[in-house]
Amino acid sequence: MGKRIGLVFLIGVLATAAPAVAAERYKLRAPGGNTAAVFNDVGVWKTAKAAMNARISVGNPVTAQNLECVARPGTKAEVIKREGSVAYVRASDALFGGCKGYVKSEFLSAY
């Protein structure tokens, strides 16, 4: 009986810790050549639809209302979930703090 309780407890602890698996980690990058990828900022959007419709990394004044924040290239981005061609990320940097929102998958670059 004691072994069963111990086993059930162990399974419960492991099941609770399972969601703590590390997420995918990337750096944000702007589309285009090397110069654009280094100097252009990247928009992090409030909705997946706004991110999909963004033709450039930041957007224009019409779409600015859907902009969550603007991040510098090289900002660390942790992918929380993916939705088709966009990803919901937590973008964080020591300089600007951080924000959560959607970016196009093409704006993610492996370390």
TrEMBL record:
Residues 1-22 form the signal peptide. It comes from Rhizobium rhizogenes. It comes from the Bacteria. The keyword Signal applies. Keywords: Signal. This is Succinate dehydrogenase.
